[in-house]
């Protein structure tokens, strides 16, 4: 058995790609664990070996492409475990309608007639080692997700500080009384769009290349995604709900950074800078429309504070007071908020809170993991894994002939 485990670990450590839109490594691991009855074992070291292998595989945290590959494999394997494992002694019952991210994913297995015939996904009574493995796998899905998200935050951090102030070369426009309305955004905003496009491409790219190499016998270095219609590349590497969650949190981060800069830096609260930020937000709105809801999710809604800051909408009294006291029209060097209005807001703010001078007007960025195992399962409507081909390297080994069954 140890030799077989060694062979499996050695095989899945490599990039095995995809078969029928499914990650080969995850499917191969699952079939081996079922064949070896590892889920039902009271004692086994295969789960520890797999966890160690995954931990070693994701040490290069800076490589988003590599991280996306392992996010796909770990989340898919977790999906299969979620569908297959039941606690020992649990009474079989009809599952309730799924309501969370990883129960809708598994519903596709139950409803598929071919999966019933081919018995690709097995339900087994799991012992403690298997249940512990599932918990550890869940932790790795969350960790890899966080790595990808935080990598993009790091890339955006240096850009966002420049996106809050109009470039100096626009002084001529401001002195002549012209605004930035209709003007294209500067390179800083375009660089943000490039960062978003880069990650979105990574999250979809590996499956697209794998799928079309298989279908059209195209090598990866010759593949051009633009040569195929968007309908043909709807399926992708990482579960869609995770892609949506990543970009939703990234847009929330952009909102926090830009909005807090407005509240903390007086020089940012000018008419010209407002126009500059507005032109950049228009680019983000366009990006959300092009990425479509299946990838962008509700990302655009996360920018509501900075979007509405210009109109002073949907902000607390503390936030309104802060912006009003900082704002000036740099075209004419005037303050356009009347002192009596500011005084009234100060009174209201004092009535609402005894700590009127605190930084309660600032937003907080969230680094929480915004999905559950059930949500991942519920988000994918896969029929079954009956046509997925296991790792070819193991098919030559007599001990792994069961993979062809």
UniProtKB/TrEMBL annotation:
Species, as recorded: Escallonia rubra
InterPro entries: Dilute_dom (IPR002710), MyosinXI_CBD (IPR037975), Vascular_dev_regulator (IPR052072)
Taxon lineage: Eukaryota, Viridiplantae, Streptophyta, Embryophyta, Tracheophyta
Gene Ontology biological process: actin filament organization
Origin: domain of life: Eukaryota
UniProt protein name: Dilute domain-containing protein
Domain Dilute: residue ranges: 48-368
